[in-house]
Design goal:
alpha/beta; 13% strand; single chain
Amino acid sequence: MSVLSSFVWSVADTLRGPYAEADYGSVILPFTVLRRLECVLEPHRDAMAEIVASFPGEQQRRTHLKIATRTEDRAGLSFWTASVYTLKKALQDPDNLAENLIDYVGGFSSNLDVFRSFGFENVIRTLDERDRLAQVARHFDRIDLSPDAVSNADMGDLFENLIYRFAESANDGAGQFYTPRDVVRLLVDLVYAEDTEALRDRGTVRSIYDPTVGTGGMLTVADEHLHGLNPDASTALFGQEINPRTYAICKADLLIKGQDPSNVRQGDTLVVDKFEDRRFDYVLSNPPFGTDWKAVESEVKNEHARGGHGRFAPGLPAVGDAAMLFLLHVASKMRDVDDSGRGGKVGIVLNGSPLFNGGAGSGPSDIRGHMLENDLVEAIVALPNDMFYNTGIATYLWILSNSKPEKRMGTVQLIDATGLGSKLKKSIGSKRVEIAEKHRQAIVSAFAGTQDKDVENVVPVKVFSNLDFAYWTLTIERPLQLRFECTPERISAVAEHKTLGKIDGLTQALESFGDTAYLNREEFNKALGKSLGDTDLRLTTAQRKALWQTIGVHDETADICLHASGSCKGEPEPDAALRDTEDVPFGWGRYPKSHDFLEETVQAYFDAEVKPHFEDAWIDWDKTKTGYEIPFTRHFYTYEPPRPLEEIDADLERVVGEIMTLLREVES
């Protein structure tokens, strides 16, 4: 595939000069699509011409063409061209080459509208003006992109490799367009793993959807894998894509496969779900890493505010990372569970932040809570680093299901595949590692619970209850105890206060108040109020509060400050400076993992872990929050003791000896 991709891209030598490097892809991509379509149509040219001449209506043409072009192993074609031209024939009239090619592209059936997304007519005219059109057309006419020479899967690889080269030449975050095939195959295998036997059944019909479809690579692999299990299976492929070029490639690719082209739609998935009323058997996605959603913030927040069954009702992540919005979206697209117990499955590629970012009560924590409380997370697989083209960060595959097998209900599998990568001979961008087939099979076996513990590639797996990831965050308060003394330091703090510093005569009044230390707030306020009154200085309630807060300093020997009014009258006031939080796992101690044991579990934790250290502390129950996090790395951490000091000393002596030897050689 790299040889074919390099040959296709070699037309860049022709473009160099009249075109900037960042513009090569705008020429190469649409010509590649055109040549692929031409090669697919080539064996059926006579039948197609006869049908086009015989039937004026598009529906009639589509019906007859499908029948005429159907073979035992390929679906019939649902697109055609009414033009007599091919690249070869257009080249035979060099003086009118541009007009001939425009006629050729304009003759395609209306369901093949992808060339508008490329602005292909402008591309043709610009090439003609720059005297490069004939050379480019001849280059592509020599490339055999027929299905016999290049399979659908290989064609998908070619498109994505060209997209990668284009984005790389334009400095445009190449990796966001291109999911490595080894990752896609692993994701598809995991999603199908528990359905393999069911997929072999006669009359199997499945829908597959990718909300960030790109060029359709995931759909292609999923489709071919399913037909490998059951050649007679019927699949319906769906996708949504924001980028017009990749959308066009995907649509053309699905047309060639005999799929309904209206099932690929252009648009921002986070703004408008183009398949709002549909749910799917399988959902696959690799949303771009680390992208913010600031540009669509108002739309997303409006959908969240509507609540109910909206995609983003459970919570919102920080604006800086849209990953968890895509997680919510794919979870919402699983088909409902039917009477036979079959529902939907999801495979999505995410970075590490959705596992743990955000504390209890935050949007990300609430989203994790939604996933876990509804028992949607079946497994999370940690991949090796350096798996992707534009990043070397840790990445994870989340497998979701709304119809888990009974033995897996209420649990999550964590699978550590970080040690199973194979080094590439040559890096591609940031990608230095791949998942070899034997490692992929080992990971899938670990997920399915069928791995042999005696084989070489044993994959570490740990199974947890959903509530193992739940915790309560307690707010621990301690009483406010203050000493009040008008020292020069405290008077200086009053002078620098943004409000108190503007009150004429206040600092002078405090200097004359004296430096007597008060350990009781009421006594201090009373004495100070009398002193200020003698100077005709009147303070508002807010100013008096700001004053004692500025002068008072913590002193454990001071009297506890008490609430003077309200429902808490007579109770200790909390000291915000001493406020702390504690995370208490569900089921701490002898209590079961349950929402229902909040008071018993939390109180037991407080009595055992906090009270012995701070006798005067208490829990502010109104501030207790429920949180969820999945500390993946912590669960697989293996302690490695430091090297013995003797070994370190020996190494240092050896290195010093080598340095001294080198110095002596220099001196001599």
